[in-house]
Amino acid sequence: MIETSLFEKLVKIRHHLHQYPELSNQEYLTTAFLREYLENLNVRILETNLKTGLIAEIGQGSPVIALRADIDALPIIERTGLPYASLTHGVMHACGHDFHQTSLLGAAEILKQFEPQLEGTVRLIFQPAEETSHGASAVLETGRLDDVIAILGFHNMPQLKANQLAIKSGGVMAGVEKFRVDVAGVSSHAARPDLGVDTVMAITSMVQELQQLISRRVSPFEPAVLSITHIEAGSTWNVLPQSGFFEGTIRTFNPDLQKLLKCDFIQIVEKIAQSMGAQVKMNWDHTPPVTYNNPELTELIRFNTSRFQTVLEAVPSMAGEDFAFYQEKIPGVFVFIGSNGAIDAPDLHNDQMTIDDQAFYVSVPFYVKNAIFLLQHYKKKLSGE
Asked: Residue 35 and residue 237: Cα distance in Å, rounded?
């Protein structure tokens, strides 16, 4: 499906994008590049209120399916030594979003050639701000996905070889909760703790009891993690501090369990604060729910993809992915595509992470062939065949 000339073009594009990475909600040059490329293909770009990123479409009428790629980079100093390494100090495409968006450009180029034969509309989402978990929500707020009946996406996976693709029904990436708990007591001299409310004791009691939440509330057959990663309280040895805080994350593949753990967490913190006379304030960030692959759609994609690509069973990842916000509104499938495969390959978000460009031979057909297949499938359903 990918001719040598297109492959070589995509490699040059990815290397260019890799050299000029931009952080979440700052992808102005990236957006301008994408817009110009699509306009040169005569691909329709839809009007939105997005400051960065864009939505385009190929084809016309119903059904409408969507393909998504993220475009932002990370605040990491690159140490790959590549000839096309980042030229923006402190910013790097260390998660492979340069590969994702280039794959979607390649798919756009091929789909445009087939536009007269498309049995509906393919909407192309070049999404900003995945790394801050706000991009998908911003895209949904545009209303441009209201008529979409299925959405596809992928993430590169360094642990898989560049000729491999993995898929799984149900939870494939974790639902993420990011919490910060601020605790306020009453300061006093360390020699007279009876005259204060011990913030340190309150925090450590909360941490200790919360660490038992997974082992005593979750089945041993159900993956779940609660990690407290940062604690601060006090500034000297002989004063009980007036305030402190701790923060961390909860992760699971079960949407119902995610809600249960959050509820139990809140109850534990509030109970201990009340028992010790401390005040507590909890902050929960805007983080993605479980990336949950629709079972029916997953089997359709598994069936069709296996006709042109060997399909593996995906090993779920405890990382989060804001593609999950689309899946709350639209049946969606998110797969993993190999991008390295070496035993010692640097993982995502690593300052030495690299992409094997041969992966374009998997990623572009995944987009194109499944888009065409889904349009045909849903067209038949709509016509009652």
From this structure: 58
